[in-house]
Amino acid sequence: MDNATGERAGYRRSAGSPRGEARRLELLAKVTDDVAENGLVDFSLRRAARAAGTTHKVLLYHFEGAEDLLRQVVFSLRERRIGNALTAVAESPATLTDRVRAAWESLRDEESELRRVLDQAMGLAMYDPGRYAALGRGASQQYLPTLVSFCPPRWPEQRKLEVASMILATLRGFLVDLLTSDDGSGAEAGFAALLRAVQREEAAS
C-alpha cells in the first residue's frame, strides 16, 4: 500500500469550502464502493484514483495520504454497517435484549463483501499497529455510542458503557467465529448465552 508521504509535497488538503467538501465526499464515495467490492489487498492511491476517475494528485489535494483515505473509507463502511443495524433495530421491540438480537441478525446476514473488508481492516490494525492503529481504535469509538443508545435511558452512564462494551467485544468474537468456522454453530450458541446475560442485566435494573 502506498505511503505517499513523499508524493504529497506541494499539495494541500482541501480547505473545506462547500464545493471542496462536496468534491471530497464524491471521491470518497467512489473509492469506498471500490474497496467494498474489491477489498483492501493492494490498496493504493493510484488504484483509488482509477476507481474515482481522477489522478492521485487530486486525491492528495483532498486527503492527507493513502492512510488518511483508507481510514475514511473504513469509517464510511462502518457507518454503513451501523446504518443497517439501526434499520433492523428500529423494526424490533424496545428492550435491550430485542435490540441486541436484531443487531446481531443484521451483522450475521450482512453482505459478505462488507464483512470481509472490515475484517481486513482489523487485520491490518493487528498486523501493523504502528501504521494502522487508527483502524482498530476507530472501531470501538464508532460502534460504542450506538450500543450505549440501546441501553435503558434510566441506567447510569457508566453502566451503559460497561454493558455496551461487553456486547461489542462479544459480537466481535462471534463475527470471527462465523468467518473461521464451517457452520457458525459456535457463534449461535454463544449468542444465546449473551442474550441471557443481557436479560439478567435488564432484570436487575
Report on the structure:
76% of the residues lie in helices and 0% in strands. With 205 residues, it is an all-alpha fold. Helix 4 runs parallel beside helix 7 (129-150). The model is unreliable at 1-11 (pLDDT under 50).
What are the key terms here?
205 residues, mainly alpha, 0% strand, disordered N terminus
What is the overall number of helices? 9
Radius of gyration equals: 19 Å
On the 0 to 100 scale, the average pLDDT is: 87
Low-pLDDT sequence parts = 1-11
Q: Distance between the terminal alpha carbons, to the nearest Å?
A: 49 Å
Helix-residue proportion = over 70%
What's the total number of strands?
A: 0
Task: Write a brief structural summary.
The protein is an all-alpha fold and 205 residues long.
Layout: helices, strands, pairs:
Layout (H helix, E strand, L loop, with lengths): L17 H21 L6 H8 L3 H7 L3 H25 L5 H14 L2 H16 L1 H22 L6 H24 L4 H19 L2
Helix pairs in contact: 1-2, 1-4, 4-5, 4-6, 4-7, 5-8, 5-9, 6-7, 7-8, 8-9
